[in-house]
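Q: Hi! First time doing this. I have a protein sequence and I read that you can turn it into a structure. Is that right? Here it is:
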Amino acid sequence: MDGHPGFGSLHEETATTIPVDGSLPDWLTGSLVRNGPGAFSFPDGSAVDHWFDGLAMLYRFTFDPGNRAGGDTGGGSGLGRRLRGRGDAVHYRNRFLRTDAYEAARAGEFDGGFATGETTLRSRLATFLRDPYDNTNIVAERIGDDYLALTESPRRVRFDPNTLDAVGHDDHDDGVPSGQLACAHLKRDPATGTLLNVETAFGRTSRYHVTATAPDGTRRHVGTATTDEPAYLHSFALTPRFVVLAEFPLRLDPLRLFKPGRQRPFIEQFEWQPDRGTRVIVLDRTTGEVVADPVTDPVFGFHHVNAFERRGGREIVFDLETVPDATTIDSLYLEELRAGSFGALGARVDRFVVDLGSPTGRGRYGVGDASVTREPLYEGGTALPTVSPARWCEEHRYVYAMSTDRPVNEWARRVLKLDTETGEVVEFDGGGYFGEPIFVPNPAGDAEDDGVVLVVTLEEGAERSSLVVLDGESFTERARARLPHAVPFDFHGRYFPELRAKPAT
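A: Yes, that's right. Below is the predicted 3D structure, encoded as structure tokens:
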């Protein structure tokens, strides 16, 4: 480790089985796969400047209640070791993604990413077109039989879910419109299994292309929204009928594509333009048309929590973590983080309601007749908010998030459960520094909070991390597995119920 363990480099890769203190529910037999920056410094002495630019590392936690049959995990990968007895266990593996970016960094040839390395906008976008960035360190997803690691580049990396080895790129040559940047977070329609995403194509008139990928991997173009100056988009919202983009006023002038320009990190090519406000673009998933684009106050945010429709589809409701402006990105430079500046964690959860206005014929709505309102759901400090995947695209009651004070003076020491109906907040503060909480629903449960919450915590002073399992209803600890090392603060995880513990072969 170098520096603060939460922002230091983890060079150790391991595969082991860990006994659990406490008890796991019998139904929790899948795997949590988390993704994030594993190393910020390289063998030649160079280093990245920003949290978002660390080299991608995957972590797999496979749950084995009762350690049935003395099991191993990894689907024949040989991961783990047999345990005696019938105590609950977690099979754990971590591994760097051996991408082009990883190999370049190991060879001393890392040429920059999100906020590391100075270049002109023109040069950076030329690189995106020729050889898109593949340091896919943000989240893991599954499309059909493929498991993918994602970042804000359209170049996605396939990985073996058992060994966590990179096994190639998920390239497309199907004629579907694409762009130079993509939202890091795909949105899954739980009714169909379709995954949607938004890619930004830069030009004299820039475009947001919405695409849909069916469970069999077939892609199609859903629709396109145009913009004079594209915004930085990390995620978006999805309902059964609509795709919703919050076009924050962190904008990029596409005319600079045609000029030599000033050399600076890529994200610093975007400029904060609060006079524009936040444009909310609503695109119909069936017709591909933009049916509304009202404007609200200037805000910035990374993560949409969830979205749903009400009043027969005339209103769209989406929850979003917001901060007043884009200075939050500056607070995520490693120099700032290691000095104890955590402004990005002080987001509040806001609820936006889009009224589509009156139908103008054939069930369509007038774009100019729409409006949007915004109100706080929770004004305390939060980061990385999530909901139960069983509530995606539907009205949700509970939101889970990292919890901080406002103003923020340290990394999150708590996680919270927010009841959006009553406003009640329950917190868990079982020691250490916390990351993103992931809710896993009980497949036989009826209540929205019948399940468990999975969260990784870095134990203060121990330089070791633990995976903590919280009861979804009471939000109390029911199990903990201590890892063999400290895990750098990562980004996002997904629970895959199909990735189960299997006997070694």
